[in-house]
Amino acid sequence: MVPTCWWRALGYLAPGHEKGRRLINTRSSQVVAQLRQEIFDGTFPPASPLREVPLADRYGVSRRTLREALLVLNEQGLVVHRHNTGAVVRSFDADDIEDLYKVRRMLECEGAKNAASADDELLRGVERAFLSLEKAAEQGIGSVDLAQADMAFHGAVIALSASPRTDEFYERVGSQMTYAITLLQHREEAFAVPSTSLVAEHRAILDAVVNRDVYASQRLILEHIATHEATLTALVSSTSRQSRRGRTTSEAGSLAGDSTGPAFLTTT
Asked: Which CATH number fits domain 7-90: 3.20.20.80, 3.30.1330.10, 1.10.10.10, 1.10.10.350?
């Protein structure tokens, strides 16, 4: 059976799975989905305070419901809780990017190793994920949908391991990677890889996987990761230098997201 994970819905949580290990009600699940999407699209920039009262008013829910949603997003690595400050949107630095890609190498190469013996339905899952990525690429390199579809494709490769616990672990990594990619692409479009090139890279990985060529699958995955890790690390390092020269605060408004400037990364 194909495991049902967030990437199976190509970036959107399947009913009941947005809760992770935490049992939350339907309304909280909806707030999780709404707030996560607004974090991804830059409405709530990195390091923005997520104050309970204005956010509860924004989504028309109780503070308890909003608090549950923030706890779920904390588990997904998109929100951090700071003593005496409360919840804030996560920021990334170069070390974070390096660590995320280190985890991806391990998980994706393990998934590719299982391509030779994987169930046919799991291989079809990789094909479906690629078709969705190809469609999302039509929106351009900076779209949130493309970043989500990108991570969904890699999640489908990881799912070849047929390990529910590995899939669950990737939910957290995939959410953080989606967020980092959208932030970086919004911050500096000039460094972003053209969507046509991105599609071609994933098509090559797909071909190797469906042909059950383990060596080619792992080689292409490692090449893909190396290229994009270098790009993302360069961008976050550049942003950090700009931040030190003169950081624009995102806390001017009473509600995170009042800032209308581009999304940015900060060091934590």
From this structure: 1.10.10.10
